[in-house]
Design brief:
With 82 residues, the protein is an all-alpha fold. It has four helices and no strands. The protein is 57% helix and 0% strand.
Length: 82
């Protein structure tokens, strides 16, 4: 059963993951719509991930990493290149 309310650290990590998705998308010179088409999701879903309204599941993270030519772990760890 999910915690309600969600701990602050979870929300902070969700925002960080969303920001890393956005950064990778912009580096790949893709719009939210183009990225969504590549991974078979709606562009509103990509928007929700980037702005931390929702968090992608593992399957979506794998699809995102492949579409953006990054490693899945890049969404979780700051490599200092941002």
């Amino acid at each position: 059963m999910p915690l309600d309310p969600m701990p602050d650290w979870v929300l902070i990590r969700r925002r960080e993951i969303g920001a890393r998705i956005r950064t990778a998308r912009l580096r790949a010179q893709l719009t939210q719509m183009q990225l969504a088409e590549r991974i078979g999701r709606d562009h509103r879903t990509v928007h929700r991930w980037e702005y931390a309204y929702r968090c992608p599941d593992l399957e979506d993270l794998l699809l995102l990493a492949d579409a953006l030519s990054v490693r899945p772990e890049d969404f979780f760890h700051d490599d200092g290149a941002e």
